[in-house]
Design goal:
Helices cover 79% and strands 0% of the residues. It is mostly helical.
Length: 306
């Protein structure tokens, strides 16, 4: 059951979060969806592997924000995230599974151990980096737009394809590490999983992007505002720099949040209505997932699972 929910969690991440790393290349026509998914799968795998060696602290940053024990509690956390991400995908809203996982852990910990089971210092650091990474993405893109403004250059399509690979790498480094952390919790080990397990995770994530990523591409790359190749390139450069900074700092952040904020900064007139809709959904992630996880944990406890 735990393994099945973990696979489901990785799948919905591919549909709602990993797709952000390929949305620029797909929306501006630099890559077809099928090719972008294959490229994303490869570099997500490379990013997950490299991050396990270079930034292992990311894997434990979310889980350390509260104490949970046992397979039943872990299942409650993952079921919460799958339900939340699935609902968001249905409405075409990109979400952050990273912060949904953290909020679900808080909800489960609140039920099993009370308010003192939550590490508020770790939680505050997670929220701080959420705001900081989005600010870097937006401000960086806005600054680059003033420097790189103008028509698309002759090499922009090639550069967009490269930036798609770079974004996929950083998504793997970020979100891949969080799922590695959940895998380690499920197997009660401090050792990272073998490469075969990481490869399977990257493949499942790619399948989620291929099956359900179209809705999110439409939302963050068309409804928010159609970008040309130069604006798409600016967006990816700024988002990559923000994700790199967070990874080096060992802070878990959202690829989708960072990329969407960078897209808003790269455009002259992004759709304010879409930005408002996304901001509300993101703000609801923490209280909603905390409450859902608390309720699911309570239900499981009625059957003696916790």
């Amino acid at each position: 059951m735990t393994l099945a929910l973990l696979c489901a969690l990785v799948f919905v991440n591919g549909a709602t979060d990993a797709v952000a790393s390929v949305s620029s290349a797909v929306s501006c026509g630099a890559l077809g969806m099928r090719t972008a998914v294959r490229l994303s799968a490869l570099f997500n795998f490379i990013g997950m592997t490299a991050s396990a060696l270079l930034f292992p602290q990311i894997a434990g940053a979310v889980a350390s924000s509260a104490g949970i024990e046992g397979d039943a509690a872990l299942c409650a956390v993952m079921l919460t995230v799958v339900l939340w991400a699935g609902a968001a995908w249905y409405f075409g809203i990109p979400t952050s599974e990273s912060h949904a996982v953290a909020a679900a852990i808080w909800g489960c910990a609140l039920f099993t151990g009370g308010i003192y089971a939550v590490d508020f210092a770790a939680a505050a650091r997670l929220i701080l980096w959420l705001v900081l990474s989005c600010s870097i993405g937006w401000c960086g893109a806005y600054a680059l737009r003033t420097v790189m403004c103008g028509r698309s250059g002759r090499h922009d399509v090639l550069l967009i394809r490269i930036s798609c690979a770079v974004m996929s790498f950083w998504h793997g480094a970020q979100d891949g590490q969080k799922f590695i952390g959940l895998y380690m919790l499920a197997h009660c080990t401090n050792a990272p999983p073998p490469l075969a397990v990481i490869a399977v995770g990257a493949a499942i994530m790619a399948a989620g992007t291929r099956v359900g990523g179209g809705r999110i591409v439409d939302k963050i790359s068309r409804e928010l505002g159609v970008m040309n190749t130069r604006e798409s390139l600016i967006c990816d450069i700024s988002a990559s720099l923000s994700l790199c900074a967070a990874s080096v700092a060992g802070a878990p952040v959202s690829t989708t949040h960072v990329r969407t904020c960078a897209a808003a900064g790269a455009q002259r007139s992004p759709d304010r209505g879409i930005l408002r809709e996304l901001a509300i959904a993101w703000a609801l992630t923490f209280p909603a997932c905390t409450a859902i996880a608390y309720a699911i944990t309570f239900i499981i406890s009625l059957f003696g699972g916790i």
